[in-house]
Specification:
The protein is an alpha/beta fold. Helix content is about 40%, strand content about 15%. It binds 5-S-methyl-1-O-phosphono-5-thio-D-ribulose (MRU).
């Protein structure tokens, strides 16, 4: 049951508006780069790989409008469009990865006429979309080997088809395990403040006929203490060279709890989510979002006025709490610094 998170249709980027789910499956048609920027900023499209794919289409849409025959003028506009898209969200490195890939494609083909360059940018965005689909399947193949009958797995946020071009990272592992006939269940953390777990993961998991139970975020420790969890699978927004991992706020709590309860904690992520330039997690920029997301629940204020709020969208899990990374090139076990480099830095 494919979920078309992003597709190129009728000359525009068609994106599922995730702010409307699960009540309504609505789409937005982005005809220009401003629409893509806004979709990323307000989380109509969200999840690291999906943000990267959307941004790639954003580059094409921004450059489609440029009227010049001169490559240097074209390049000047390209720099501006890319800088603009870079400003939409700071943490998921897939955004910057996709934008750099688009830039390189244009620069490597400067001998082409501008019409040819524009065509090439669209082709590159479509390729990024297709590659993400295939990468997710490979992640799922590797990850599903770790799931055994009667496992009881936990996940946080949404790391499914909605967060990627198709199928997902952490949730893709569950979909593939189900296709292989394994019997297991999944607990989904609701994921305050924006409830990606309750609204999006539960919706997707149910569509895939996965046995899913929703829990409040603060229930995870009790569930582990009860002995009712066997594995944790999460996605990632940026992974430093030593394995420190930024993911949705609350992920590090789960990792530390898992460590204490001796429950394997797996991060499922494509190579494009690894930022090998960063030595450790302290260098990962963490997005701080509007306080209203904490003050309000589904747009309705629940907190009294006159108080403060703090709303980091991500946290960083230190590598020592992570059992392994599941990538499209295989499963990476500790020592991470050496093994991440060996597997991915080629
Ligand atoms: O703020 P969001 O909804 O974009 O956060 C998304 C996450 O943290 C996901 O878990 C992460 O991007 C992995 S997605 C495959």
């Amino acid at each position: 049951m494919p979920i078309a998170t992003i597709e190129w249709k009728n000359n525009c980027a068609r994106i599922i508006d995730q702010t409307k789910l699960p009540l309504r499956l609505a789409y937005i048609d982005c005809h220009n780069v401003e629409c893509v920027w806004d979709a990323i900023k307000v989380l109509k499209v969200r999840g690291a790989p999906a943000i990267g794919v959307a941004a790639a289409f954003g580059v094409f849409l921004g450059m489609r409008e440029v009227k010049t025959d001169n490559f240097n003028v074209f390049k000047g506009h390209l720099d501006k469009v890319i800088a603009y898209l870079c400003s939409s969200r700071p943490t998921a490195v897939n955004l910057f990865w996709a934008l750099e890939r688009m830039r390189k494609k244009a620069l490597a083909n400067s001998e082409l006429k501008i019409a040819g360059l524009k065509k090439l940018l669209l082709q590159e965005a479509l390729l990024i979309l297709e590659e993400d689909r295939q990468t997710c399947r490979r992640l799922a193949d590797f990850g599903s080997r770790l799931i055994k009958d009667n496992d009881s797995c936990l996940t946080i946020c949404n790391a499914g088809a909605l967060a990627t071009a198709d199928y997902g990272t952490a949730l893709g592992v569950f979909y593939r395990a189900k296709e292989k006939g394994k019997r297991f269940k999944v607990f989904a953390c609701e994921t305050r403040p924006l409830l990606q777990g309750a609204r999006l993961s539960s919706w997707e998991l149910k569509k895939h006929n996965i046995n899913v139970t929703l829990i409040a975020d603060n229930t995870a420790g009790y569930l582990m203490a009860e002995g009712r969890l066997s594995k944790v699978f999460v996605g990632a927004d940026r992974i430093a060279g030593n394995g420190d991992t930024a993911n949705k706020i609350g992920t590090s709590n789960l990792a530390i709890l898992s460590y204490e309860h001796k429950i394997p904690f797996y991060v499922v992520a494509p190579g494009s989510t690894f930022d090998l330039k960063l030595a450790g997690g302290k260098d990962i920029p963490i997005e701080e979002r509007h306080k209203d997301e904490v003050f309000k629940l589904q747009s309705k204020r629940v907190a009294p006025s006159g108080i403060k709020a703090y709303n980091p969208a991500f946290d960083v899990t230190p590598n020592k709490f992570i059992s392994a990374f599941i990538t499209e090139k295989g499963i990476i076990y500790p020592p991470f610094k050496k093994n991440i480099h060996n597997v991915l830095a080629v």
